[in-house]
């Protein structure tokens, strides 16, 4: 005899599973937009991602960092970088902090390509901008909390986020609209202004970063 479900919703996946599916679908749409842009500009998707990762990085980055961000082998990242250097989009030179190592920067042509890419992916920014202000704040906080949980698995790549920056001072004004403080600009830091990727970021020590993320989670 067939057993009828107790409610019409018994087969619904739990909310955590649906959150992951939603993020995955949004990621797929963004990835498709990236691939469409890359194809039109004679780039492959990895090359386009590298250009995006080098955006606003004045000090240059190491190849090993790029590989970790892309979740690919250093050899694979190196192949893509070599192609970008040949196209005149990326410059490779001695690292400023270690003359024995190399670092990567965008060229002027590379910066122009990234601006063009951001314009092509503007549909996503437009969609987020159309949300109610309160929803945007809640979504940003929720994403930070999700990242904080993922950090515990040690599967999430390093970010230039506020919580991993030496200028970030956590919970200086608990309970207020601006509970944190940024020592760089010497001003209270509202949660709505927390950054995932900040050009002025300077890494803090691992123990402090871990405490910041754990407190946020």
Automatic annotation (TrEMBL):
Annotated keywords: DNA-binding, Transcription, Transcription regulation
SMART domains noted in UniProt: HTH_MARR (SM00347)
PROSITE patterns (alphabetical): HTH_MARR_1, HTH_MARR_2
InterPro entries linked to this entry: HTH_MarR-typ, MarR/SlyA-like, Tscrpt_reg_MarR-type_CS, WH-like_DNA-bd_sf, WH_DNA-bd_sf
SUPFAM superfamilies: Winged helix' DNA-binding domain (SSF46785)
Pfam family, one: MarR_2
HTH marR-type domain ranges (all copies): 16-149
Protein name: Winged helix-turn-helix transcriptional regulator
């Amino acid at each position: 005899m067939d057993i009828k479900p107790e409610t019409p919703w018994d087969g619904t996946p739990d909310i955590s599973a649906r959150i992951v599916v939603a993020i995955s679908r949004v990621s797929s749409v963004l990835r498709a937009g990236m691939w469409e842009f890359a194809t039109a500009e004679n780039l492959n998707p990895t090359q386009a991602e590298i250009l995006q990762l080098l955006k606003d990085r004045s000090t240059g980055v190491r190849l090993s960092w790029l590989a970790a961000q892309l979740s690919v082998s250093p050899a694979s990242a190196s192949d893509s970088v070599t192609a970008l250097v040949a196209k005149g989009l990326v410059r490779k030179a001695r690292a400023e902090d270690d003359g024995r190592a190399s670092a990567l920067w965008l060229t002027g042509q590379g910066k122009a390509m990234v601006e063009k890419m951001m314009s092509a992916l503007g549909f996503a920014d437009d969609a987020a901008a159309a949300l109610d202000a309160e929803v945007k704040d809640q979504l940003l906080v929720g994403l930070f909390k999700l990242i904080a949980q993922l950090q515990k698995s040690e599967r999430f790549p390093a970010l230039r986020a506020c919580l991993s920056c030496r200028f970030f001072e956590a919970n200086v004004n608990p309970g207020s609209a601006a509970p944190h403080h940024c020592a760089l600009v010497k001003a209270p830091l509202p949660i709505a202004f927390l950054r995932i990727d900040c050009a002025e970021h300077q890494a803090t020590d691992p123990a402090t970063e871990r405490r910041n993320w754990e407190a946020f989670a």
